[in-house]
Amino acid sequence: MRLCAWYLYGEKHRGYALNPVANFHLQNGSVLWRINWMGDSSPRGLGASCGLMVNYRYFLEETASNSALYLGSKQVRASQQVLALVNQFQQNSKL
């Protein structure tokens, strides 16, 4: 889950999220909200993402500012759960 959080939050291509689904939602003003262990236990989900599923949350009053922040400054808005996983990854990673 820590690696998934880092992949979605920290891995970039030209400053934007490397994952195309994450990039789509973040451009539209969402918050990287939650990573769910075994959120998709179907054979396809296990093969594509080891069963992990991600939720993006849209706060309607914040979508325009979140989108502008992401597109202008390339900053990803994320929940405390995701940021805690990112922090754990950074502390334990040798990357």
Automatic annotation (TrEMBL):
Entry GO terms, CC: mitochondrial matrix; peroxisomal matrix
Q: Which GO terms describe its biological process?
A: acetyl-CoA biosynthetic process; fatty acid biosynthetic process; malonyl-CoA catabolic process
GO MF annotations, alphabetized: malonyl-CoA decarboxylase activity
Q: Which domain of life is it from?
A: Eukaryota
Q: Which residues cross the membrane?
A: none
> Malonyl-CoA decarboxylase C-terminal domain: which residues?
1-58
Name the Pfam families for this protein. MCD
Among InterPro entries, the record links this protein to: Malonyl_CoA_deC, Malonyl_CoA_deC_C, Malonyl_CoA_deC_C_sf
- Can you say what this protein is called? DCMC protein
Name its species.
Answer: Aegithalos caudatus
The gene it comes from is Mlycd
